[in-house]
Design goal:
The protein is of the alpha/beta class. The chain has two domains: 1-82, serine acetyltransferase, domain 1 (Orthogonal Bundle), CATH 1.10.3130.10; 105-204, Hexapeptide repeat proteins (UDP N-Acetylglucosamine Acyltransferase, domain 1, 3 Solenoid). The protein has five helices and 15 strands. The protein has helices spanning 3-31, 38-44, 46-62, 66-80, 192-198, and strands spanning 83-84, 89-90, 95-96, 103-104, 109-110, 115-116, 121-123, 135-136, 141-142, 147-149, 153-154, 159-160, 165-166, 175-177, 182-185. The strands form three sheets. It has a six-stranded mixed sheet. It has a five-stranded parallel sheet with strand order 1-4-7-10-13. It is globular and about 50 Å long. Its EC number is 2.3.1.30.
Length: 204
């Protein structure tokens, strides 16, 4: 890939990144009771650093500059402990709390307002070059250590408990816990944020 194309992709990604920074910061501050400072969050959140770096590496990946994209994602992995493949598609206001040990595979698709805790894996169950990683709808929360594996769908507002192993679809607004994960709630009238308090297995 010519250097000019790579530089152009980087410039476009930098513009997009700047547009998302404040939105990402506000989303992170609203979800992390340990801080109420944008500055502290910007300087000390490895999860945000990983997400911001991913936005640049994904722009490189989609422009065809795949080796620079992989090198950048690996540098972010070394610096943050979070591994997001540059091919993964990430929505707006994505927040990774604590960060360490999170892995997001190449064909994963993540909606808006999704939150992952440390140790989460969005992994594959196939060695073929196909869609092999999960798709997460808007507003999904996944607890610490959970493994979500394969080309499955977690509907909007779904919650996955800490250390759960999920290999089947989770309906919208449902709560899934355990190994293998079982659906604990499917009542769409329940606010998923309240479910974090009602279901002990979701505590992280």
């Amino acid at each position: 890939m010519p250097i000019r194309s790579t530089l152009g992709a980087l410039a476009r990604a930098a513009g997009d990144l700047a547009a998302h920074v404040r939105e990402d910061l506000d989303a992170a501050v609203s979800r992390d009771p340990a801080t109420d400072s944008r500055l502290e969050m910007a300087l000390a959140s490895p999860g945000l650093h990983a997400v911001w770096t991913h936005r640049v590496s994904h722009a490189l990946w989609t422009s065809g500059s795949r080796l620079p994209a992989r090198l950048l994602s690996q540098a972010a992995r070394a610096a943050t402990g979070v591994e997001i493949h540059p091919g993964a598609r990430i929505g707006r206001r994505f927040f990774i709390d604590h960060g360490m040990g999170v892995v997001v595979g190449e064909t994963a698709e993540v909606g808006d307002d999704v939150m992952l805790y440390h140790g989460v894996t969005l992994g594959g169950r196939s060695m073929e070059s196909v869609k092999r990683h999960p798709t997460l709808g808007d507003g999904v929360t996944i607890g610490a250590g959970a493994k979500v594996l394969g080309d499955i769908v977690l509907g909007h507002g779904a919650q996955v408990g800490a250390n759960a192993v999920v290999t089947k679809d989770v309906p919208s607004m449902a709560v899934a816990t355990g190994i293998p994960a079982k659906i604990r709630r499917t009542d769409g009238t329940i606010d998923p944020q309240h479910a974090l308090y009602d279901e002990p297995a979701l505590w992280i």
